[in-house]
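tool_call predict_complex ligand=adenosine-5'-diphosphate
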Amino acid sequence: MQGKGQPNIYLIGFMGVGKSAVGRNLARAMRMQFIDSDWAIEQVAGKSISKIFKEDGEARFRELEREFVETGHPETGVVVACGGGLPVQPGMSDLLKQKGVVVCLFARPETIMARTIGNPKRPLLNVENPEERITELMAEREPIYMKTGIGVTTDGRGIAEVVSNITRIYRRELRLR
Ligand SMILES: Nc1ncnc2c1ncn2[C@@H]1O[C@H](COP(=O)(O)OP(=O)(O)O)[C@@H](O)[C@H]1O
Ligand SMILES: O=C(O)C1=C[C@@H](OP(=O)(O)O)[C@@H](O)[C@H](O)C1
Ligand SMILES: [Mg+2]
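tool_result ok
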């Protein structure tokens, strides 16, 4: 891989902003490896995200996320799509910034609603009133997202456009290091 040895790129942000879809395409464009933290955790746990939440609880899922960040992925050459709650735990924001270039994707609640509706991978939104849940959770998480990553908006922009924006940000960050 051409991007081997280069600082990792971490994509963070709320559920449905496009971290997984953008990350996969970004990795291809940058010739880097792609890892989705949710996928990696499912491999370690041997079960789906919704089963982990149901059988072991959210706290166990957060522990698996921490293990993934601390020791569960390569130190360089990887585009990591993080689960939406991953940077929110104590200490994770600083850890991610130390490990690589962190980019935070944003989208309006209506966009998030449209992109996440009916997906079993997001038990936190599997509630009677998902709009309300999105608004509450977003308000809680936004300050952490803002202080952790370089912001990129995705409303009304296709995946390719978001990818090329991040590519430019990453090259600029490498020059500044
Ligand atoms: N910029 C975009 N424009 C349109 N659809 C998008 C965009 N980014 C992501 N999507 C779609 O929205 C859904 C959620 O994206 P996903 O990458 O799973 O989000 P996340 O990993 O942030 O939760 C997917 O169906 C994806 O293809
Ligand atoms: O925001 C969250 O707490 C979560 C986001 C999900 O990932 P995506 O952000 O990729 O949807 C997944 O990790 C889990 O359902 C919890
Ligand atoms: Mg994802």
